[in-house]
Amino acid sequence: MWKLKHQTEEVRHSIDLEHKMRSVVYGGIGLLVLLGIMALSPATSNSVDAAEPALQSDDSTPSLTVSLQQAIDFNITPTSAGEFGAGVAKIYVSTNNSSGYSISIATNNGKNTLENSNNGIVQPVNDSVTPTNFANNTWGYAFGQGEINASTAIYKALPISMTEVANSTSASANDQYTLALGAKVNTAIPSGQYSNSVTVRVIASPREVTLADISTMQEMTAAICESTSTGASRSLTDTRNGKAYTVFKAKDGNCWMRDNLAVSGTVPKANVAGGTGGNYTLIEDTNYWNENATYGLYYNFDATTAGTGTESGYTNATASICPTGAEVDTNWVLPKTGENRSAYAQAGSFRYLLQQYGITKFYSSISSNATIMTGVNLSFQYGGCVGDNTPCNAGSYGYYWSRTASPRSTMFAEYLYFNTDGYVNPNYNSFNRNYGLSIRCLYPSTSTKADVQAQ
Questions:
Q1: What is the distance in angstroms between the CA of the first residue and the CA of the last residue of the chain?
Q2: CA 302 – CA 423 distance, rounded (Å)
Q3: SS3 372
Q4: Are residues 123 and 111 in contact, defined by beta-carbon separation less than 8 angstroms?
């Protein structure tokens, strides 16, 4: 998969176009312009013949293919009044899975003249001219998509530094362009071979992959979350049991589940820093409960943290039963409310998330808080809990485990607590770890990853 735009290593391919110049019949003028390709993209292939490249059909391997003949070579028999001549080359550009491409052109030697060994010079045209308006002993180029008529095209002077002549925003393209070189010469300059060399540069940038491009929880990466627009959402399937969850890019910079987790059986331990640390087996009515399908499953703290939440004092569990991701160093994780034995309120915490959506006052009943908690953006639920195998407070209270141990005792752990009166506490710690509460997992973005994963 391509890296993010402007973060990929450019692969440069230049075509060595050293040629012997051919002799020209006495009294005639030959114009030879050597053409080179520079293609810049994460995965590049080049061709220097005039054949059209094969159409791109496999989006799994991002690529850029550019095809261009090696030279434009044409002869003009000059007259005293001046004679116009032109030659053309076809350029084919094929790319897939990109955010588009640009084509630029420039001479290679810092000059935009044609010169020969007898001190003859053909100067660049002035402004934009048609063949009927060429001054004698001048030359220029015309460029366009598809076919262009060299005898009626508008010509300009060749730039001496890379100048964009075309661009495309197509994510998958198979395009043809025509490069025409024209000159008008008379008998005032020496006969012979006049030449220069030109590079045509094509740059394709990889298309950023967002939430809209994946279908499973296990495909998520920090880069995907980073490139997704805030507020965008997508239904993703957890491949462990085929259950789908709505995932959205939140205002805190992370990608959060908008539904409660509901997975059972034996699952891999999703380590906070990435990878897996073995498996964890969930046992119904012992460390998880299926009391109300509307609210997902309820898990005790041991199950929530895949057996790694064993200490106290604002320490964080090192794993969870959240899904794994597509990276070796990042997974879906539980929110945290503590860090290094102190309270934590930055990206990846309940407190910071809620603050971004307008809850700025905690620990008191504010009616608007209830609306925000259960509104379309966050969709937290009054799922209640399970204690001693008995449902409690469903419909009136919401409880969601964090991965943070309570500073009070090893008997407790911290969680988000709220009720229908609008009371919200983002790091409550009065429940025993054996209670069953709901779970919401989040995936960090590139910019939040360090904070979310820090212990």
A1: 30
A2: 27
A3: helix
A4: no
Residue 389, number of CB atoms within 10 A of its CB? 10
Q: Give tens-digit pLDDT for 100-140.
A: 899 999 999 999 999 999 899 999 999 899 999 999 999 99
| pLDDT > 80? residue 68 | yes
Nearest CA to 327 among 449, 208, 229, 185?
449
CA distance 145 to 402: 57
Tokens 């366009």 -> residue: 144
| Per-residue confidence (pLDDT) for residue 338, from 0 to 100 | 95
Alpha carbon distances (Å) from 51 to 71, 92, 146, 185, 370: 14, 8, 15, 31, 66
Q: How far apart, in whole angstroms, are the C-alpha atoms of residue 65 and residue 56? A: 9
The DSSP bridge partners found for residue 243 are 238
pLDDT tens figures, 333-377: 999 999 988 999 999 999 999 999 999 999 999 999 999 999 999
- Grouping H, G, I as helix, E, B as strand and the rest as coil, residue 373 is helix
Instruction: Please give the distance of CA 143 from its chain centroid, rounded to a whole number.
Output: 31
Q: What are phi and psi of 148, to 5 degrees?
A: -130, 150
Phi, psi of 105 (to 5 degrees): -145, 145
CB atoms within 10 A of CB 6: 7
